[in-house]
Amino acid sequence: MLITYPVSYVSEDSYTYCFRQPVPIRYSCPVLPPNFLSDETDGWNCNLCGSDSAFYAPYERGDIIPFQTSFADNYNLPADVLVSGFQTNFSTSHYVKIELQDCCGVTVSEFVDEFCETYYVGFSVATGSIQTWFINTGLFPQSLECFRLKISYYKYNQITSLSELERTIYTEYYKEVADCGYTDTALIASVYADYDCYNNFYGTLTNTLGVGNTAYYNSMRVWGAVEFLGDSEASTENDRNVVISKVITENYGIISGVYPPYFVKRLAQTVRGNSVTVDGIQYQNFSYDQKPDDIKMFLIDLSFDKKCRLDNRTCS
Questions:
Q1: Number of domains the chain contains
Q2: pTM of the model
Q3: Which of 16, 38, 82, 260 would suit a FRET pair with 182, their CA atoms being 20 to 30 Å apart?
Q4: How much is the pLDDT for 90?
Q5: Is residue 86 part of a domain?
Q6: Which neighbouring-strand residues pair with 305?
Q7: What number is the average pLDDT over the span 49-58?
Q8: Are strands 174-176 and 96-102 parallel, antiparallel or unpaired?
Q9: Which SS3 state, helix, strand or coil, does residue 221 take?
Q10: 79-95 pLDDT per residue, tens
Q11: 66: closest CA among 194, 170, 167, 202?
């Protein structure tokens, strides 16, 4: 009788050092430009990679969103004599044109005065040319929930005496937070004493052309709500063990969401200002976790605190 026994088989190469186990695909992810984009296809949602997810910067209807660029002015010649600024309904010539587009790239408006209440170009010897505008989302058409900006800069050709397009840049996408009562957001704002690390100027110029002269500031929304996490105190006593002063530090945080690198850079720029507020209340010592190793996006848990100083000393 022939008896057949089960035989376990293991490939011989599995015992060697060169045996390779199946591993996840390594994606070659594109390097994305910061802040403004030189091409509309450079944005985050156009270049998702691996486990990336689509992202739209949140805003609530009525938010004021500041923008600033500092391109050399090759239209107003000389640059300190400001004759042309932003394109509006009433301008006859323009140096800068801001187009409000929906998420399909369709232009909703190309006149800055239809969606901004403050906008101006400015010049000083110290700063050079600066272009600043503040989007007022409360002026948007009711049907517009998602938008991006297309910004065009023009130069003056002294040979042909004609206006020519010099450069075009784009913003990333913004999307209105659904008004259904289930989503919390917090508004973070800040200013700097002079300049930040991205060469944005926070002072006021006297030589400007446009409407208003509001100094630039940072303002952005993040997902989540401010939560009180606890507090601590440090006391100072005199030689009779009497407490003469206390510093009470209240700790807060925002358990937020998953963000792409470009948005985290904006967040870092905002929370490193010398005066930072969250929903109108001033805080300090902002910090957040570094990016996890296994994904390209950042999982943000923002922490910050507020200090109260009590002085019990009296003078007679």
A1: 1
A2: 0.84
A3: 260
A4: 92
A5: yes
A6: 251, 284
A7: 90
A8: unpaired
A9: strand
A10: 999 999 999 999 989 99
A11: 202
